[in-house]
Design a protein that fits this description.
The chain is α/β, with parallel strands linked by helices and 377 residues long. It has helices at residues 16-30, 71-86, 99-109, 123-126, 132-144, 153-163, 189-192, 214-227, 241-250, 266-271, 287-294, 307-310, 325-337, 339-355, 359-373; strands at 5-9, 34-39, 53-57, 90-94, 115-120, 147-150, 169-171, 200-206, 230-236, 257-261, 275-278, 299-302, 317-320. The radius of gyration is 21 Å and the shape is globular. The termini are close together. The protein binds ligand GMT. Pfam families: Glyco_transf_4, Glycos_transf_1.
């Protein structure tokens, strides 16, 4: 099959959409395709650069005439340049706003008929879509794309209902790199973090935004901590961080809640973790759940958005209603008290990644779409 030249537009900073965009690009590069990232900076997960991956930086000067630098237009201009100079076969845009709009503008600027795939990741619809000023923009981005994908069936349904686009949307699930996320020996991480060998370890990994409901995680942990000796790892950074630190102090949990900051060694942290908590009020998919599952860590998560497509209640984890911290604690204690049940959940978590979210299968779905949009199938 022809080697494709793909322009990729994504947010290069911390966040699930950036992770998926970079992991997919790496897999495509390994399959021989030429991937051109058109972004404001190098995506954060790109530690090793693959020879089939190129970066095209979007530069913008802060001219005094602008209150806000027009990044979306600078992006469109750069995409148009790359379409022409690199003779791209298609564009893959992650996150509708502003990327899908910049892509549509770029096509026009380059006078090109290049195909565009937009992948919706969640907040671009579930949060921005509620803003009347942006709802039409999201619809425009979807309608101008040749095909739009959503990372879960729940997100697809919500987009159809809320945005009412004129184009079909298909679901392609997220995946993780199974080579990176796999069960490994715990090493001396517990000692390094000052955790007693017998302590149970609960973990939450996110960008510490309100939508993640981390206060519920701390409240659930407090209940769990009343019954067993345990530690809570809060991994990441974000706007809520200082309020969370205050809450931990107020609850008298400073000795048991560890803020690790943003970390690159997630498999090592997951290797010492017994249970993941994700109690978000909105979550299109919950990529971090897959990262945990791939390392054999079951989860307790809220029954919202795309989470039930990942967490199967009573199989690889438990689902709870939003804000039900008592149910979280009860389920965690049940799991920790029954080794057989816990091991069954752990096996099922690994199985979920191997079967339902197998990266090879998902990458092939995207590749098929790439050929279709490039007019080669
Ligand atoms: O809130 C985040 O975790 C970041 C956000 C993003 O835009 O990167 O994540 C969204 O995309 C991820 C990758 O597809 C999904 O796994 C997350 O569920 C989704 N976040 C929300 O829907 C809140």
């Amino acid at each position: 099959m022809k080697r494709l030249k793909v322009g990729v537009i994504c947010y290069p900073t911390l966040g699930g959409s950036g992770v998926v965009a970079t992991e997919l690009g790496l897999k495509m590069a390994e399959r021989g395709h030429e991937m051109h990232y058109i972004t404001s900076s190098k995506p954060f997960r790109f530690t090793d650069v693959h020879p089939n991956i190129q970066f095209h930086e979007v530069k913008i000067d802060g001219y005094a005439v602008f209150k806000y630098p027009p990044y979306d237009i600078a992006l469109a201009n750069r995409i148009a340049q790359v379409i022409i100079e690199e003779e791209l076969d298609l564009l893959h845009v992650h996150y509708a706003v502003p990327h899908a709009i910049s892509a549509a503008l770029a096509k026009d600027m380059a006078n090109s008929s290049i195909g565009v795939i937009t992948t919706l990741h969640g907040t671009d619809v579930t949060i921005l879509g509620h803003d009347p000023a942006l709802k039409n923009t999201v619809r425009y981005g979807i309608d101008k794309s040749d095909i739009t994908t959503a990372v879960s069936e729940a997100l697809r349904q919500e987009t159809l209902q809320m945005i009412e686009p004129n184009k079909e949307i298909m679901t392609i699930y997220n995946f993780i790199d199974e080579e990176k996320y796999k069960p490994i020996e715990p090493g001396c991480m517990k000692t390094a973090l000052g955790i007693d060998m017998n302590d149970k370890v609960l973990i939450h990994i996110s960008n510490f935004r309100t939508v993640k409901r981390i206060p519920d995680i701390i409240a659930s942990f407090k209940l769990i901590r009343q019954d067993i000796s345990a530690k809570l790892l809060l991994v990441g950074e974000g706007p809520e961080q200082f309020d969370l630190m205050d809450q931990v102090k107020l609850e008298g949990l400073e000795d048991d809640v560890i803020f690790t900051g943003k970390r690159d060694d997630l498999p090592e942290l997951l290797a010492i973790s017994d249970l993941m908590l994700l109690l978000s009020e909105k979550e299109a998919f919950g990529l971090v759940l897959l990262e945990g599952f791939a390392c054999g860590v079951p989860a307790i998560a809220t029954n919202v958005g795309g989470i039930p497509e990942v967490v199967e209640d009573g199989v690889n984890g438990f689902l709870v209603e939003l804000g039900d911290t008592e149910a979280v604690a009860a389920h965690a204690l049940t799991l920790f008290a029954d080794e057989q049940l816990y091991n069954r959940f752990r096996e099922q978590a690994l199985h979920t990644v191997e079967e339902k979210f197998n990266s090879e299968f998902i990458v092939l779905q995207y590749e098929e779409l790439y050929y279709r949009i490039a007019g080669l199938s």
